[in-house]
Specification:
The structure holds two protein chains of two kinds.
Chain A lengths: L6 H4 L13 H5 L2 H7 L15 H5 L13 H10 L7 E6 L5 E5 H17 L7 E5 L4 H12 L3 E5 L5 H10 L2 E7 H8 L11 E5 L13 E2 H6 L15 E7 L7 E6 L2 H13 L6 E4 L6 H13 L3 E5 L5 H10 L4 E4 L1 H9 L15 E4 L6 H11 L3 E5 L9 E2 L13 E2 L5 E4 L16 E2 L6 E5 L14 H6 L1 E2 L2 E10 L5 E6 L4 E3 L2 E3 L1 H9 L4 E11 L3 E10 L7 H15 L6 E4 L13 H8 L15
Parallel strand pairs in A: 1-11, 3-4, 3-5, 5-6, 6-7, 10-11, 10-12, 12-13, 13-14, 26-27
Antiparallel strand pairs in A: 1-2, 8-9, 14-15, 15-16, 17-18, 17-19, 19-21, 20-21, 21-22, 23-24, 25-26
Helix pairs in contact in A: 5-6, 5-7, 5-12, 6-7, 11-12
Chain B lengths: L2 H15 L14 H4 L4 H15 L14 H11 L9
Helix pairs in contact in B: 1-3, 1-4
Classes of the chains: A alpha/beta, B mainly alpha.
Chain lengths: 617, 88
Amino acid sequence: MTVSAGSDSAGPDRAGPESAGPDSAGHGRSAVTQAATATAGTSAGPAAGGFTWRRARADLDGLPGGRGLNIAHEAVDRHADGPLAGHVALRCVARDGRVSELSYADLKEQTSRFASLLASLGVGKGDRVFTLLGRSADLYVTALGTMKRTSVFAPLFPAFGPEPIRERLRLGDARVLVTSAEMYQRKIAPIRASLPGLRQVLIAGPAGQDAAAVEGTIGLADALAASDPRFEIPPTDPEDMAVLHFTSGTTGKPKGAVHVHEAVVAQHSTAAFALDLRPGDVFWCTADPGWVTGTSYGIIAPLTHGLTVLTDAGDFDARRWYGLLAEHKVTVWYTAPTAIRMLMRHGDDLPAGYDLSSLRFIASVGEALNPEAVLWGERALGLPIHDNWWQTETGAIMIANTAGMEIRPGSMGRPLPGVTAGLLERGENGRVKLTGGRVTEVTAPGVEGELALRPGWPSMFRGYLHDERRYAEAFADGWYTSGDVARRDADGYYWFIARADDVIKSAGHLIGPFEVESVLLEHPAVAQAGVIGKPDPVAGEIVKAFVELNPGYQPGPDLRRDLVAYTRRRLGAVAPKEIDFDQDLPLTQSGKVMRRVLKARELGLDTGDVSTLGRVP
Amino acid sequence: MTPEQARAVIERALGEVAPDADLVGLDPDADLRKTLELDSLDFLNFVTGLGTAIGQRIEEDDYPRLATMAGTIEFVAAAGGQPSARST
């Protein structure tokens, strides 16, 4: 079952933004030719001919005077100093629908003011600047201004509750936090005393408002107005830390994945390959910058291409979204399977009421996109949806259904140029099997293995902050091991099967069960807790908790409501959506809750053979 | 259904999804999802629960009418029917 790409993007004369490069021919070739060139073994992607990361670097300018490579220069200043100065860089839609715009020249000035402000606050190279902000211009100015200063941008998902926020601010050595007055009062003020390293809190919002009146904070708008609009980006080593994104593992605390300025090389080139970005595009990435997609492709890549970025502060709403696509003439749209499935619930006819004729390319990431969703795109939107795959650790898209190639619905596509992917045999614990320190590659088509990548692409994470052990554990015998189980067909397309560990993927967000269990265990009623991802038709998975109660507590609706309220207050968006009572949780000999058994029970599988779990899609 | 009955039904449905929500001081015209921090799934669960409580499926087309407490009360009151005796 295949879907052909739209005729607009499959034509042989397509000239993408990288048309001068040797790789552009790859996009123009027919899907048949491309499929024939893919190998069943380790595949370097359909358009790999002639591509090197060194050549990709040549698409960027570098800092003037050979002073290095800085993301903010590539994304903002180089355009502001050229013909794109007056071009709209950022079009922000507020919750109430009001639209405001910043040109590249405006964005240069604002981000320079922010960098100057950081300098005046004594915030320097490598210092972490966190955000807990809705999707407003302030967020983008903070991100890029921080990178200008060679400080480190560390975005938090604003729907987190106080506990995940505190943990990440602490683990990430937050020096500065930019947030709103409302979120500060609700989520930061109660925990600030426990964060002595957090020296300044900047409150975003309209100038002259009483933000500065919030005790112990600085009003951002007024401070920016008073800051120097000129800022020369200091020499920046491509290996200097630029962005810190938190992600979750099966056990332990969240991990801060370190990304460096050189990541922009991969973000820029993969955006052309996998998202088909071209000059003049209006690009909408619906991901929140609190997650890696919202930073790599919601902020950095479209701006390095000199495009107009649309951003919406509002929540998902089908009519609002179709309205935005139509009104702002969005040409390229990057969204997530959960959002697509929610749109599908509204039926095929709703989009017909909107003029979506500007839309040229749709891509999706977050979890595997089901084939029905790809086909729905063709039917209801007139365009197929291009699934792709990557992770916080990879910093950029690694595997994709690209514009020129045949889409296989349900497949994540093939490795992009410069990316070497493989599948590795798995051992007893579900993860990569090591024999004498060596891994074994799976080469036969259709056989599952753990998806792995050969290090060397520019946006690979450079470490987990303060956690060298877990960084080392992410590699095996010269491969980065993703934790995702996949198979590859004879034409080199990869197909997601399952996670190799207990990490939960809900609405595209990676949630660590340990973080949720830890909070549950702090409730007086809870003796043991096990948290799993329960399959869900809309979100992929939802967080479900099983709790064993301490003596003296009775299971029932009141206690359940109490636990739900408690976890929502502490955890926010990562709180369990379902809580079940179980006075006989399955434990290992060392007393740890066996999540795989809970998951098998939830799925109605034979709990005697949990080894089959990894094969459940 | 009277507005008072409607409000009680709505509060019960919200209480199932977001028992942490403070409904007492809720501005009737405030954005329900933002104020109560309901994500997309919470909202879907709320709508589903509310539909069960009023004995009719709430269509996707009606979601915009549920943006605020005032709007939701109006919708539920107009939808008619009697609140079901469902306790949880």
